[in-house]
Amino acid sequence: xxxxxxxxxxAMSDSAxxxxxxxxxxxxxxxxxxxxxxxxxxxxxxxWTISQIENGEAITLLSLIQILRALDQLHVLDAFKIEQQISxxxxxxxxxxxxxxxxxxxxxxxxxxNW
Length: 115
Hints:
The chain is mainly α. It has helices at 14-31, 36-43, 47-54, 61-70, 88-97, 104-112. The chain has a domain at 9-80: lambda repressor-like DNA-binding domains (434 Repressor (Amino-terminal Domain)). Helix 2 (36-43) packs across helix 3 (47-54) and helix 2 (36-43) crosses helix 4. The longest helix has 18 residues, at 14-31. The model has no long low-confidence stretch (mean pLDDT 86).
């Protein structure tokens, strides 16, 4: 479900998104051949919590993270990664500091040698 790039998350209601997440959790659990109890034990949550999310009911964010970790699916959180952005002003400053040519010291060393 969550890997489907055709999903229009913006058009979905909050409760529909919770249902989609629950379906994803259930699909991953079944692909890994885990029971709700196995997953709950590995995640450190109650089996009821697994049942709740799989049935499209809300759970805490912490529980969701624990479940994703137990399913080895934390990569779905990659969208939350903050990339350091450099401002155009800082980029221009860095460009000005970049060496434009070799130093004149190297030129004078070559002029002293006899070829």
